[in-house]
Amino acid sequence: MDKFKENSFVKKVGFNRIVLFFVMILMYAFFCVVTGGKFFGMDRVLSLLNYAYFLGFLSLGVTFVIATGGIDFSIGPVMFCCALISGFSLTSYGVPMGLALVISVLVGLAFGLFNGFLVAYMSVPPFIVSMASMNIAKGIASVFTRSQSVSWPQSAGAGGWYRNLVKVGNIPVGLIFFLAAAAICAILLNNTKIGRYILCLGSNKEAVRLSGVNIKKWEMLAYTICGLLVGIAAIFYVSAYTTVQPGYGDQYNNEAIAGCVMGGTSMAGGLASIGGTVIGVLIIALLQEGILALGFAKDYQLIITGIIVIAAVYADVVARRRKN
Question: Which residues of 228-262 are buried (b: 16+ CB within 10 A; e: fewer)?
Fold first, then answer.
């Protein structure tokens, strides 16, 4: 095993990511066997990917926040807030589809700026900020839509062209957008000054501050990037499911964070893996679709996701102890 870990390819890709990838393959094979091969169907694969897209953008965003040593539990409700405000503007005020999509991104960006400002410049604990933002997002969405659900148009003639962002026929074009976004995030986090400072904040914020770096700017930027990606996640959510209800979204917080942590992003900050996040998200989506295929309620997925979060965080704690 040690010899395998020392292999140049394994070092470059990451041993943990390779293991995680094979876990995903084994899970897929398991669900295919126990469902009598039904999991091989294209409809099942497309359903799995629909779930992975919006959850993936949420996970990519929160990866930047967790890398600083922070946390954001508002991403799910903020995603719904983005979808509700932009969708209501579209259906009730006649806003053009293109502008509605821009509004979704801008709402997410506004929440990212708000969270980042409070955490970085006002020194409010991230946990408190995110919990407050979660309630604010739910409240704003309910007030704006008058507590009504919003159904985005489905037919192309009514403006449903946005659904092509997810799939065209049976072609999962959404996967291209998601992987492209992941590649950009990976470059940003691993090959730019932005990513370097964000990771350094998670490793030792005080040391970075004493070196003369404006830590507030970079910490706020991490939350801003998260908000931007949450706004994009809302677009992919409505592209797959079209109908959005106020007061929801909490359930996606843990799933997005689980995808990050499972993929190798440390809850203590300073260590993040975009590639690992992508695989982690696909495993969460695979788990969700597999549980439904077996005939179990979604509640079972919530239980398993909670266990995964605890196990992943514990593994990270053990790894840090050994390293120290």
Answer: bbbbbbbbbbbbbebebbbebbeebbbbbbbbbbb
The size of the chain, in residues, is: 324
- Name the helix (H) or strand (E) containing 151: strand 150-151
- Rounded average pLDDT over 236-241: 93
**Mean pLDDT (the chain, rounded):** 87
**More confident call, 308 vs 214:** 214
The answer to whether the Cα torsion of 194, 127, 81, 280 is positive or negative is positive
Domains of the chain in sequence order? 40-145+162-314 (1.10.3470)
Model confidence at 28, pLDDT cuts 50, 70, 90, reads: confident
- Please state, in angstroms and rounded to a whole number, the distance separating the CA atoms of residues 27 and 128: 36
CA pair distance 112, 91, nearest whole angstrom: 25
Q: What is the CA radius of gyration of the chain?
A: 20
CB 67 within 8 Å of CB 271: yes
Q: Are 3 and 10 in contact (CB under 8 A)?
A: no
Residue identified by tokens 């962002």 is 165
The tokens describing 9, both together, are 């390819």
Cβ neighbours around 197 below 10 Å, total:
19
Alpha-carbon distance of 155 to 145, in angstroms, equals: 22
* CA–CA distance, 294 with 35 (Å, rounded to integer): 7
**Which 8-state DSSP code applies to residue 232?**
H
